[in-house]
Amino acid sequence: MTDPAMLIAEMGRSARTAATSLAGLPTARKADGLRAAAAALRAKAPAIADANAQDMAAATERGLSGALLDRLRLDEGRIAAMAAGVEAVAGLADPVGQVIDRTTRPNGLELSRVRVPIGVIGIIYESRPNVTADAAALCVMAGNAAILRGGSEAVHSNAATHAALAQGFAAAGLPADAVQLVPTTDRAAVGAMLAADGVIDLVVPRGGKSLVARVQAEARVPVLAHLDGINHVYVDASADPAMARRIVLDAKLRRTGICGAMETLLIDRGFADAGALIVALRDAGCEVRGDDHAAALVPGLAIADAADWDTEYLDAIASVAMVDGVEQAIAHIAAHGSHHTDAIVADDPAVAERFLTAVDSAIVLWNASTQFADGGEFGLGAEIGIATGRLHARGPVALEGLTTYKWIGRGTGQVRG
To answer: Considering the domain boundaries, does residue 265 fall inside one?
Structure first.
């Protein structure tokens, strides 16, 4: 078997050549390539479904959790959604070449900042075969080449999806190595990607906490990621009870295994329907663990321990704490949140604005479910991930987040002298 470091180095050289070509392509050419790729995904849907069935059977036999199985599953609707997502990216505004700002210096030198592709993007992901299509579409439209390393549990799904994408790109005349799939499940390939300084320009991990932690600890190249999705919904005393119920149930239970799911519910002690809200969550099939104040409202409620406030359940489990107003909610989120997505339900605009301003998360919502933490819902087409850091990109990372910028100066013979 090829040495993983040599394999990644060779893939990196091919990707760099492809990236150089992609960076100079007009928007229409890239869009045509994505539309051809979407058409190929639709045409190859039966083959992709068959490949996914192999992965699902193996994953079930291995005892993967329900949340992981849900992420792995590709049914007819999800394959159609993948194709639609690729097609949607083709219709988005191309950030490459956009002028961010322009100024003219007193000496007449004109300076502008212009968006350019990052170069070669490495994406390391688990259990999410849809990432193969999302990452390919976003990277190509932003003028980047991509090296994809999927998890062993989705090996057949990823290969079938990549084959369809490659067929579409080739039909449209895009570089053959614009999107490459690492052809081995050897974990050493991940280490080789993380050490590929100068070969890969940015690494984006999509997966469980252990994967993201490893990437952040070992990477010698820049990383764009989030580690946890410990998301909160705060229900203020001014909240409409019916709205609070709708939002809380959706935020927790619409899809429990995604990073935008609510994990902790914070309720103002002044909210009159607190007990009914907790019971509604429990009656909907959620295991609820509350603090002493919540337990006093709902007899028989399990008591949360210290670890609950710092746990991303990714399951039908939620912790509930009663708080004294918005300031205590903000303090709780600052102490236990992961800077991912937090929401407030409130009718009082002053309270809501205080929350929106003070909560230091990548996404902060007013009267909306945390499950909107998604690039498609933000009008960005697909997304390559959610970033919770403070540099370069934050929140759903789509086309603009996969570009950087360079300064361009236009002079008329100016010298420093």
So the answer is: yes
**Cα–Cα distance for residue pair 33/14, rounded to 1 Å:** 19
Q: Say which DSSP state 256 is in.
A: T
CB 402 within 8 A of CB 115: no
328 domain residue, yes or no: yes
DSSP sequence for 62-103: HT--HHHHHHH---HHHHHHHHHHHHHHHTSPP-TT-EEEEE
Longest dimension (CA), the chain: 81
pLDDT in tens, 7-32: 999 999 999 999 999 999 999 999 99
Examine the pLDDT at 381 and tell me if it is beyond 80.
Answer: no
**pLDDT, tens digit, 9 for 90 and up, residues 140-155:** 999 999 999 999 999 9
Token couple for 190: 């991940």
The percent helix, strand, coil of the chain (3-state, each to 5) is: 45, 20, 35
Q: Which range of residues forms the domain containing residue 308?
A: 231-372
Task: Give domain status of residue 384, yes or no.
Answer: no
Would you say 376 and 211 are in contact if contact means Cβ atoms under 8 Å apart?
Answer: no
Q: Enumerate long-range contacts of 186-189, CB under 8 Å, 24 or more apart.
A: 186/1, 186/4, 188/4, 189/4, 189/7, 189/8, 189/149
What distance in Å separates the CA atoms of residue 342 and residue 232, rounded to the nearest whole number?
A: 5
Asked whether residue 273 is domain-assigned, the answer is yes
Whole-model pTM over 0.85? yes
